[in-house]
Each structure stands twice: as structure tokens, then as C-alpha cells.
Specification:
Number of strands: 4
Distance between the termini: 45 Å
Strand content: under 5%
Length: 246
């Protein structure tokens, strides 16, 4: 049986994220089993959403090769697509099980960050989400495997590792901020604010032009980053003012 590195790192990110969330749930006196169940629902919804988003921005390839839709081990998962389907799934489960919406979201925030960091290492192994050509960059990377999704035998920005590093820093900020948390919704708002900045910046170094653009030099992901930053900033101040308890 072949174990694909991409899938391995995605699975590792999920398991580590679930472990951290359930540990925090126990500290707060909440059901760790519900957190595990919620994690699996979010994972499934996120994979479907991220794959659908990628297919939407690359329709021609999948119209000609419909079976490739199922080949998620080759990469081709867009994080923001996962968010768009993962959020309503999260809200549905939390409401159905009478769990505090913002409290639960805060519980998952660090897990999302570290899970995403591992996922980007998986992207690096598959060559997807690759960077622009960077011939003079000392830390540029060269992909040579013919099954890789990145351009071969040219030095590229390791944008996957940039984002993995950024999300690791995001994770460290969130677990530190948790010690000083003053209202529910604070951690998830902070996560979105920080990640939006990370993603917006890294997009300037991305080289995979098939990810979609709103206008020249402004990718779809950057547009979503701006929107999410504004929504999170507004939400942060509203939640802080109201001191939400659940």
C-alpha cells in the first residue's frame, strides 16, 4: 500500500489539532467526544469545500479529466474553500448539540493553525501551491520528481514552507493569547486576522497562476483575505464590547 506524503501530513495535522482541542475541552469541562465528532465533520466538509473551490477555479482540466476530481492526494485543495463549507458545518453541529458557539470556536482556533501548518508541509511534498521562480534566492527549492505538481528543475520560492512557518507562529500567538483571554470569540477572531495577513502577503510570492485572479496581481485568495480581515476585525470589536459568554 502506498502512503502519500501529502495525505500523511494532512492526517497528522488533523490528529494533532483534534488532540489539542480535546485537551482544552477537558480543561474547560466540556465533552471531548463532541469535540472529536465535530472535528471529523469539519474535516469532511473542509476537504469537500476546498476541493470544489479548486475545481471551480480550474474547470477546464476537470471537464476533460473528471476522474482527477477524486485525486486529492495529488494536492489541489484550497484552504478558503474549506473555510466556506467548514463554517456552516461547524455552526450546524454546535447549535444542534447546544455548545457555545464562540467558546467552541476559540477552542479550535489554535488547532486550525497548527493543522494548517502541517497541511502546507504536505503541499510542499506534493509540489502544489508552489512559488515564483527565484534564481538568486539562497533558500529557493528545486523540484525534480516528474509526478510533482510544481515546475521542474527551476529554483522556486518555497511558499508552502512560508505559510507553514506563518501558521506555526500564528499557533504560538494563539496559545499565548489564550492565557489572557477576556471574552469568547477572541481567539478565533485573532486567528482569522493573523492568517488573513499571512495569506495576503504570501500570495505575492506564489507562482501557480491557475489559482485564480480578480484583477492582475490580485488573486482570489487575496480578495478573500481582505474580506475576512475586515469581517474578523469588526467581529472582534463587537464581541469584545458585548463580552460574549458562550
Amino acid at each position: 500500500m502506498t502512503i502519500h506524503t501529502y495525505g500523511f501530513f494532512v492526517a497528522m495535522g488533523f490528529l494533532i489539532g483534534i488532540y489539542l482541542a480535546t485537551r482544552q475541552a477537558r480543561k474547560e469541562g466540556l465533552s471531548s467526544q463532541k469535540i472529536v465528532d465535530l472535528g471529523f465533520y469539519i474535516l469532511l466538509a473542509s476537504i469537500i469545500g476546498s476541493r470544489l473551490f479548486y475545481i471551480v477555479v480550474n474547470p477546464s482540466h476537470y471537464l476533460n479529466n473528471p476522474l482527477d476530481i477524486l485525486k486529492i492526494w495529488e494536492g489541489g485543495l484550497v484552504f478558503y474553500g474549506g473555510v466556506l463549507l467548514g463554517i456552516p458545518t461547524f455552526i450546524w453541529y454546535v447549535k444542534r448539540n447546544n455548545m457555545g458557539l464562540w467558546r467552541t470556536a476559540d477552542m479550535f482556533a489554535p488547532s486550525i493553525a497548527i493543522g494548517h501548518a502541517f497541511g502546507r508541509i504536505g503541499c510542499f511534498s506534493a509540489g502544489c501551491c508552489y512559488g515564483k521562480i527565484a534564481e538568486s534566492l539562497p533558500w529557493s527549492v528545486i523540484f525534480s520528481n516528474p509526478e510533482c505538481l510544481a515546475p521542474l528543475n527551476v529554483p522556486l520560492h518555497p511558499t508552502q514552507l512560508y505559510e507553514a512557518g506563518g501558521e506555526t507562529v500564528n499557533f504560538l500567538i494563539l496559545i499565548t493569547l489564550r492565557k489572557y483571554k477576556s471574552f469568547n470569540g477572541q481567539l478565533i477572531s485573532a486567528y482569522i486576522l493573523i492568517y488573513s495577513l499571512i495569506r495576503f502577503t504570501i500570495e505575492f510570492f506564489r507562482g501557480d497562476v491557475n489559482r485564480g485572479f480578480i484583477i492582475e496581481n490580485l488573486s482570489v485568495a487575496q480578495g478573500i483575505s481582505v474580506l475576512m480581515f475586515l469581517v474578523a476585525a469588526i467581529g472582534f470589536f463587537i464581541l469584545r464590547r458585548k463580552k460574549v459568554k458562550s
